Amino acid sequence: MAASPSSAAGILVSVIHESSILLQSTRVGLLRVDPLQIRADTEASRPTLVFPLGVELYKGENDLFLDRLEAFLTTRPATGPRKRLGLAGTISGTGGQHGLLNSQPQGAGPVQTQLRIELLGEDLRLLDELVQGTAGTVAELSLVFDLRICMIREVVLDNARGTALDVLPLASPKAEELQIQLPCDFWARQLAPALGHDRYRLIAVKVPAPEGPLGDGVVPLFDAASRAYDAAEWRESIQKCRDVRHYVEQHLELQEKEHVATAIAQRLSVEPDDARIKFLDATWQALAGLTSDAHHLDSIGRLEAATAHAALLVTATMVQHVGELVGPP
Question: Do residues 209 and 131 both lie within one domain?
Answer without folding.
Answer: no
